[in-house]
Amino acid sequence: MTSEATTIGMRIDAVIASLESLPHTNPEILYASVIGASLLFSFLVLNSGGSSMALPDGGDADSLNKPKISKAKLVSPSDEPQPKWHILRLTNYIVTFGFLLSVLKFASNATTYLDDSTSLLQFVIIWSISMCYFFGFFGISFIELDELENEPQNHQHQILRKPMPTKESADPPVKVVKMHPPASSAPVCIDPTSFKKPSPSIPSNIKELSNSEIASLVLQDKVKDHQLEKLLDPHRAVEVRRLKVDVQLDSLGRGGALAELPHKHDLDYKRVLGANCEIVVGYVPIPVGMAGPITLNGESIYIPMATTEGCLVASTNRGCKAISQGSGAVSSILRDGITRAPCVRLPSAKEASEVHLWIESPENFQKLKEVFESTTSFGKLLEARPSVAGKNVYIRLRCFAGDAMGMNMISKGSLAVIECLRQRFPNLSLVALSGNMCTDKKAAAINWIEGRGKSVVIEATIPKGVVRSTLKTSVPAIVEANLNKNLIGSAMAGVVGGFNAHASNNVTAVFLATGQDPAQNVESANCITLMEETPEGDLWISCTMPSIEVGTVGGGTGLPAQAACLKAIGVKGGGENPGDNVKQLAHVVAAATMAGELSLMAALASNSLVAAHMTHNRKPASK
C-alpha cells in the first residue's frame, strides 16, 4: 500500500497494465470480448419475453390442457387505434447497437482514451445517456405482454364470432371469448368481494343495447353475470344469460342445448300423460342455474342445477372454479349395479336355509341369470345375495341396467327369478317384490357398505394460493373444519352415510334438473368428504359416494326441459355403448357434490357463510 491517494483513473490504468502483462493476450480484445458478451447476454434476456411467453394458437399456459374451441374469424374488440410498438422496438435496437459500437471503439484503444480527458468525457456522456434510456424506456415496447393478462384485446383473449342457434332471439351473433377451463367466476355468494356494487365501467346505456351485445359484454367480463338482474329487469336478465350460456355450451359442441329448456310459462302436458303424473292441475316451475365449467376427467363440463335455495349455485360455481384452477376433478366408478331384494317366505326356517344355500351355488346362480336376462335387452344379472330371517329369505339381486336407472328393468327380472325358484321350491311364496333390503329411498347401512347404482370416488388437489385467493381461507383451517364437522361431528350424531357438509343439496339440484327421481336423493347423497394438506401445503379433497342412482333414459329424462339439461351435460339418451352416458352423469353428480362441499367448508372455515346468505339470499321488503 502507498501513502498517496489513489484515483479511479490510476486504478483503471493498473487494471489495464495487469491485462497487458498476461502472456499472448491482447488486452483490448479481451476487454472488448468481456464487455460485448455481457451486453449481448443482457440484451437477449431482456428481449426473451416476447418469444418465451408466446403460446401456440393464441392460448394461455393452461390452454395446453384445455379442450380446443373451433376456429372462427378473429375480430378486434374495439376500433380504437393501438400503439405502434414496432417503432419503440426499433428504437431499442438502434440505441443498443450504438452503445455497443461506442464500447467496442473504446475497447479498441482504451489506454489512449483514458489519457485523453476530452475523449473520455465524450464516452461517459454517451454511456450515461444510453443507460438512462435502458433503465427508463428499454422495456416499454414489451408492455403489451402485461396487457396479455388483463385486456380483452390481447392474443390470449381474441374475440370469436359465432352464430347463435337459439329460437327465441334473432339478435346478431354474440362475441365469444375463450373460456375453458375455467371460466371467470360469476356469482360467488360466500365471497365477500361479491358484496360490492356494480363497477362504474359498465356502459351507462346498457339497457339500450341488444341482448346479444350485453351477452358479449358478459363473455368479455366487462359485465359480471350476477349483475344482470340489477342492471336489467329479471326477465331480460334470463334471456341474456341464456345467450351467454348457449355460446359457452357451443364451444363444447353442445350449442342449442337450452332451446328446449323453457324460461316462459310453457309445459307440454301430452308428454306428462301416462308417464310422469296423474290428475294434473298444473306444474311448479323451479329455477335452473348453470355452474361451471369444471374440469372433470380432462373435459370441461357445465352443471345444470334446479333449486330454490339462494347461493347454492353460486357457491357450487366457486367450487368448480377452484377445482379447475387446481388439478381438475378426477372421478372413478368402483361398482355399478342397481338392486332389488324380493322377500320370499317358506313354511319353516330349515326350508328357508335350503333356499339360501341353493342360491349361493355358482351353478344355480347361472340358472337365475339366464331367466333374469331373458326379460330384458340390456339388463345383466351380476349378483344374487340371500339373507335369512326365520322363515323369510331376502334375495338382493344386483343388475347392470345400461343407461337406465333400472328399477323397472330389475323388478321385471326379479319376478322371473321368483318363478324359477318356485319350480325348485314349490312351497315358496312371494311376500313382496321389494323387501326393503334393496334399499330404495331409505337411509340404510347396506347401501353405504355394499353400494347401489353407481359407486363413485372423486378427488382433486387445490393449490394453496387458490385456496387463499378463490376460497378465501387457508389449507389448515379448511382441513381442521372438515375433520371436526364432517367426521367427528357426524360420528357423534351417529349418522349413516352422512359424513359430509351438504351433499344432498347438490345431488337433489342436479337430480331435479336432469329428470332423476328426487326421492332417491336419500341414498344417492351418501357421501364421505375427506380433506388433507399435502406435503407441498396444497389441499387434497375427495368425496366417496357409494350409491348414486341415476339414468339418462326413462322416467323424467324424457321431458323437454330435463332432456335439455342432459343435453347441456352431453349425456342425453343412450350412449354409444350401453351405460356410457349414465356413468358420465354419475361423475357429474359427484363433481357437483365435491364442488359444493369445497365451497361450503371454505365458507365455514372463514366464518363468512351467514354474512353471505344475509346479503344475497334475502329479498328486499315489498313496497
Beta-strand content: 5-15%
Please estimate the helix content. 40-55%
Q: Main beta sheet, described? A: 9 strands, mixed
Low-confidence stretches: 48-80, 141-170, 181-188
Count up the helices. Answer: 23
Can you give the mean pLDDT? 80
Please give the radius of gyration in angstroms: 35 Å
What is the total tally of β strands?
14
Structural class by helix and strand composition: alpha+beta
Instruction: Please report the distance between the alpha carbons of the first and last residues.
Output: 93 Å
What overall form do the CA principal axes indicate? elongated
Structure description:
The structure is a single chain. This protein is of the alpha+beta class. Helices cover 44% and strands 15% of the residues. β4 and β5 form a beta hairpin. α8 (211-219) packs across α10 and α12 packs across α22.
Summarize the structure.
The chain is an alpha+beta fold and 623 residues long.
Q: Which SSEs are present, and which pair or pack?
A:
Layout: H1 8-20, H2 27-47, H3 49-52, E1 74-75, H4 85-108, H5 110-115, H6 117-137, H7 144-147, E2 159-162, E3 174-177, H8 211-219, H9 228-231, H10 234-250, H11 269-272, E4 288-296, E5 299-306, H12 312-325, E6 330-340, E7 343-345, H13 349-360, H14 362-373, E8 380-389, E9 392-400, H15 407-424, E10 429-432, H16 445-450, E11 453-462, H17 464-469, H18 475-493, E12 498-499, H19 503-514, H20 521-524, E13 527-533, E14 539-548, H21 560-569, H22 580-606, H23 609-616
Parallel strand pairs: 12-13
Antiparallel strand pairs: 1-2, 2-3, 4-5, 6-9, 6-11, 7-9, 7-10, 8-9, 11-14, 13-14
